[in-house]
Amino acid sequence: MDVSGSLNCVVVAVDGSEVSMEALRWALDNLKLSSSSSDSSFVVLHVQPSPSVAAGVSPGTIPFGGPSGLEVPAFTAAIEQHQKRITDTILEHANQICAEKSVNVKTQVVIGDPKYKICEAVENLHADLLVMGSRAYGRIKRYQSLLPL
């Protein structure tokens, strides 16, 4: 069943990896949006890790000891700025790919755990299709990832 041409919203999740950028190229080359709707769009979605995930600590706490309830705003702000620079670079690369293909896209950034936030974004955007790259783990690597540590 060919649905290309009847799609109103296609979300392409990118994380900066070459695999995700190849998925974006594939979507732009192979999918056609509905021409009957002016709201049709490709949405490039990036999920930025929360500062606590990026730092490996709870947000704002001192990573090297001290009272656990003590917040260090400068530490959190530095992590957030670093994450924003990474996100900006990823979206710049994605937008460059879209410009090369002469396709206008919308971009969206959400913060949190990708496995939940991608699903939420797809639902909120009422997307017809989600495109993601695959790291193509072999059978052994997939099996190892299922084993408890």
Write the layout of secondary structure elements.
Blueprint: E1 9-13, H1 18-30, E2 41-48, H2 51-55, H3 73-100, E3 105-111, H4 114-125, E4 129-131, H5 139-146
Parallel strand pairs: 1-2, 1-4, 2-3
Helix pairs in contact: 1-3
Structural features, described:
This is UspA domain-containing protein. The model has no long low-confidence stretch (mean pLDDT 83). The protein has a single domain, classed as HUPs (Rossmann fold), CATH 3.40.50.620. It is globular, with a radius of gyration of 18 Å. The longest helix has 28 residues, at 73-100. Strand 1 (9-13), helix 1 (18-30) and strand 2 (41-48) form a beta-alpha-beta unit. The protein has 5 helices and 4 strands. With 149 residues, the protein is an alpha/beta fold. The protein has helices at 18-30, 51-55, 73-100, 114-125, 139-146; strands at 9-13, 41-48, 105-111, 129-131. A 4-stranded parallel beta sheet has the order 3-2-1-4, sandwiched between helices.
Question: Overall 3D geometry?
Answer: globular
Q: Please tell me the CATH architecture by its name.
A: 3-Layer(aba) Sandwich
Q: Structural class given helices, strands, pairing?
A: alpha/beta
Number of helices in the DSSP assignment: 5
CATH topology category name: Rossmann fold
The share of residues in helices is 40-55%
The main sheet comes to:
4 strands, parallel
The mean pLDDT is: 83
Order of helical and strand elements: EHEHHEHEH
Number of strands: 4
What is the CATH superfamily?
HUPs
Q: Could you name the CATH class?
A: Alpha Beta
Quickly count the domains: 1
Pfam family, one: Usp
InterPro entries: Rossmann-like_a/b/a_fold, Universal_stress_UspA, UspA
Protein name: UspA domain-containing protein
